[in-house]
Fold this sequence. Notes:
Elements: H1 14-21, H2 23-26, H3 29-35, E1 42-46, H4 52-59, E2 63-68, H5 71-79, E3 83-86, E4 98-104, H6 113-123, E5 124-135, H7 141-153, H8 168-177, E6 180-189, E7 192-193, H9 198-205, H10 215-233, E8 241-242, E9 245-253
Parallel strand pairs: 1-2, 1-4, 2-3, 4-5
Antiparallel strand pairs: 5-9, 6-9, 7-8
Amino acid sequence: MTHPASAPTQDWQPARYTEQASFVPALARDLVSWLRPRTGERVLDLGCGTGVLTAEIAAAGATVVGVDASPAMVEAARAAGIDAHVAQAETLPFDDEFDAVFSNAMLHWTRDIDAVLRGAHRALHEDGRFVAELGGTGNIAAIIGAARNVLDAYGVALPAAPWYFPSLDEMSDALRRAGFHVEQIVLFGRPTPLPGGIVEWLETFGGPLLQRLTPERRVAIAHAIEARLAPTHRGADGVWVADYVRLRFIARRG
Ligand code: BEZ
């Protein structure tokens, strides 16, 4: 699932995550089918979060190790019976140990994609596979645009690159630089119904947009962003839908 192997700007809280972000593993269940885990394989789940998809991979018969940068998320994953450890994605401590590396919704949090991909490559046995999903180019463009407008009005600059949302070419080039062969790579829009509003989404995920603000300003700015998006992102039924774009790939260690 998610998680910031490197996201000092986001405070991850397992209870809030389960309440506001269960769609993250739920909508990526078929990424496990892309992985096709087999009995006896060793799989690394990079950014395991609370361990929902990690458990699904284990249920397929693989031995799974989860890593996440958030101690709170690792504790929650362990409570769910996952073999989980705190680790930064940019400095993975594995060498030739896994048949596959799996990652859902974590890679876009990194500030150094090359370091993460090199570590994933190093963690794999020769011919091992890396199967991952992250936000792709255009992901949450409307949310970022609304945040830019509101922050401008408050005289606050939006961070230059709050997340890493690559194009197909950028992701493919990064994988090749790390030594992978790209077998499959796709970019697709996935409008995503949210369990709460944009204010709750921003609390759960929006750390990079709202960093270095006082708590009062954060709340005021989050409500102003939500108000801007209401005409286009809240349906007649009251359900908010975020403009997610996903990038998925299967890459093989050369
Ligand atoms: C995503 O999963 O697409 C995402 C998560 C957090 C912030 C932005 C996007």
